[in-house]
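Worked Example 4.2. Consider the chain below.
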Amino acid sequence: MKTILHKANTRGHADHGWLNSYHTFSFAGYHEPSRIHFGALRVLNDDTVAASMGFGKHPHDNMEIISIPLSGDLEHQDSTGRHEIIKQGDVQIMSGGSGISHSEKNANRDREVKFLQIWILPKEKNITPRYEQKSFPVADRKNKLQTVVAPDDESAVWINQDAWFTLGSFDKDAAASYQLHNAQSGVYAFVIKGSVSLNGVELEERDGLGITDITEIDIKATSDTEVLLIEIPMQLS
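Applying the procedure from the previous section yields the following structure tokens:
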């Protein structure tokens, strides 16, 4: 097993007043040559947006962009005509493909919205831009793992990559195991809250851990915890 640990307090940080953002990987004004990507995982941003504020319309192409609200409601509009509200428990994916423009805004006037935005390099370039959103009951990942993004699971949102996103919400001392879909893949784990041990590596809230050369991950909650596992190809075409 090989690992790379990114402690929460080593992330890039930008506070724009209306936006407070932490960057696990190089993004915008944060550039760290050793943290450009982990396999096909290019961006993992931990964003807090003030009430009624947001990102104006801006373009993307050839990137799989996943948004996971942690609290509050996120309003999305894009050049395909979609206008959606993404809530806690929802997972949204947008394939930039040959080109798409979108905007994101805090739909709440009285509270912040917190969400993870994750960029995955695509398997096929220049596909037709697409959008998908599904709700995933939190109860369905209580002390177990729940697949929310996959290329081969109709219950999850589809991604243009051999990548799987899995969420788990565990009580202290609960345990589970994750079996990799592809032995050549790596897994990037991100602790949303609490603390957890993954194959004996202790992680705390907002820590990230890249893991390679394994086929299984043993999960042991050391407090009440929520964790995201992202399995992605390590070799980029």
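The mean pLDDT is 96. Residues 15 and 140 are 34 Å apart (CA to CA). Compare this with Example 4.1 before moving on.
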